[in-house]
Amino acid sequence: MKKIIALVTGGFTGESVISLKSAAVIGRNLDPEKFDVYKIIITPESWYYEDENGGKSEINKNDFSLTLNGSVVKFDCVFIGLHGSPGEDGKLQGYFDMLNIPYTTCDALTSAITMNKGYTKAIVQDIPELHVAKSIQLFSNNADNAARLTQNLRLPLFVKPNNGGSSIGMSKVKAEADLPEALAKAFNEDTQVLVEEFINGREFTIGIYRGKQGIAVLPSTEIVSSKEFFDFEAKYTTGVTEEITPGRLTPDENLRVEKIAKAVFEKLNCKGVTRMDYILEEGSNNFYFIEINTVPGQTENSLIPQQVRAAGRTIQDFYTELIEAALISKK
What we know:
- The structure is a single chain.
- The protein has ten helices and 18 strands.
- Strand 4 (56-60) and strand 5 (65-68) form a beta hairpin.
- The mean pLDDT is 91.
- Helix 2 (91-99) packs antiparallel against helix 3.
- The strands form three sheets. Strands 6-5-4-3-2-1-7 form a seven-stranded mixed β-sheet. Strands 8, 13, 14, 15, 16, 17 and 18 form a seven-stranded mixed β-sheet that branches.
- By secondary structure, it is α+β, with helices and mostly antiparallel strands.
- Residues 124-324 form the ATP-grasp domain.
- The active site is at 15, 166, 302.
- Belongs to the D-alanine--D-alanine ligase family.
């Protein structure tokens, strides 16, 4: 019998546009022989099912059910394709936990922690062979922030919303005079801001997932951006960035980063598929942790689908495994 899947998308942040694009790709690649899929859009105003003709039916939030043509639809599993809040910060996960409905991402606690870049770095910083850039976490946009930052950190600096995604509100700062503008931009997106030292090296990202056989790693992707850094435009505009999958790593470097990635995934108690961004520092060949994304993008330009294909798998089979692993975890 087919499993009934809710494909959740939308959201409360600027990443909602990316969520809708991800959901379109996910929906096209869920096996119709195994799953009946209902796209559920969550917005600040309403939660609703949208059919192929654009018709809308409200979700019953008491039990996350749907009534269509007089029949009640209840879901066996939720495929979360919603970036940012409430799909990536633990809010939806806690809701589904209370309803005992399995889902394809990390649990509520892990989702909440990993959404906070500063807290995540504090947890992973003692993993062997993994380094973290020196940083300061700010909780308010005070007038003395710029002076404090330049006294304690070395320019250039990355200024980023601590709980944001898709590099929205992020800046690279080379001069102290540019810090106030960068801080204002980041605080416009979040109440907390993380400022960290720039690490000179090549940027990569690696997919890690928990499948039916346990934790597995996908091939790394090397990010070669024509822009100053891998910002929103570079991530989602075709041609701005060269993405090389598998990335140009030596066999030894591949083994090292796979070991590190699995350790990060395990220490944070991740589930589903995640994507760890990292830098291979020039000269030292040290691996520096940037962040982990617990609901990575699944758009046509996204990195996880590239890595799945590079691993010799189909996207359909990969998504099937994520759903089956989620269902097993609830038994």
